[in-house]
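so ive been stuck on this for like two days lol. basically i have the seq below and the ligand is flavin mononucleotide, smiles is in there too. i just want the complex predicted, nothing fancy, no docking runs or whatever. if the output looks off dont worry ill sanity check it later, just need somthing to start from for the group meeting slides
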Amino acid sequence: MADLTVHYLGKKLPSPIIVSSSSITRNVESIKKCADSGAGAVVLKSLFEEQVEAELDHDRSASPDSFHPETEDYFRQMGKHLGPADYLKLIEKAKKSVSIPIFASLNCTSSAWWTTYAKQIATSGADGIELNIARMPRSRKEDGESIEKRMVQIVAGVQAEVPLPLAVKIGPYFTSLPRIAAELKKAGAEALVLFNRFYQLDIDIDSMRLAPGYQFSSPSEMYTSLRWISILSGSIECDLSASTGIHDGKAVIKHLLAGAASAQVCSVLYRKGIGEIRTMLRDIENWMRAHNFSSVAEFRGKLSQAESADPESYERLQYIKALTGIN
Ligand SMILES: Cc1cc2nc3c(=O)[nH]c(=O)nc-3n(C[C@H](O)[C@H](O)[C@H](O)COP(=O)(O)O)c2cc1C
């Protein structure tokens, strides 16, 4: 039997496939299905700052007259999601139901307040926290440096007070990804999740309104994380978890060869069902057998760019070859 175990975020996982934060991981029944299908861990659906504020405001407000109609609509929307008290219960129940690690997920925009909540998550038994730091810069007054500084402050603030390993899930849009990765690591991130897939904006041309875009990824989207994991894995002392566009066992193998510690999946499970994890693991085992590997540890990172003699020239050469058509 192939040894599929990996080490990620301070835990030994039975397999490298993690079910990423999504509605699949917001109830115990489907978390159990993930574990039964061979997932190495799950990241729970994120708790959003706005949900917590909504619950607090609800508690504070004695009079419904104080709500603006739009606010009421907002509360109704929020009511469809888990509130913070339910979130802690979900962690406790999930921990009792499965033996794989359970990572909580927080979507933060500010630092101080989050620390308080992350502390409660720590007492509810979560094995780690993924901080989903997603901010769309909209103001021309805010420069890149101050945005990155705030991200680093969020991580440092939580790390200073919360005794759980932290992963930070970020998007791919930075002028220098190696630099922000190093800063986040310095602030206390033990793992980086590369990458978040942001909400896609579309326009409905019949109603002429803004509309949500297609929410699921396609397999061709995996190349961004493959490149960056291959570049960063040898140069940063941080676990890297691949995310976005991983739809089959081959994509997991590629990311492990590039140096990922784990690979997160979401869209493929919405499309094919949670049982697809088992198919992906079987394909990984077959590939390992064909290449005489008995454990993931034997091949993980074999093709990270740190293993290449001259990675920069190699990539530039492939780029020129592709553009000129010369082989
Ligand atoms: C329906 C849905 C809900 C999601 N909810 C969250 C969330 O609460 N927090 C989060 O960090 N990511 C969330 N994501 C993003 C996924 O965790 C993942 O990063 C993204 O879908 C890319 O991975 P994939 O290509 O495997 O789908 C969600 C994705 C989907 C499709």
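The radius of gyration is 21 Å. Residues 144-161 form the longest helix (18 residues).
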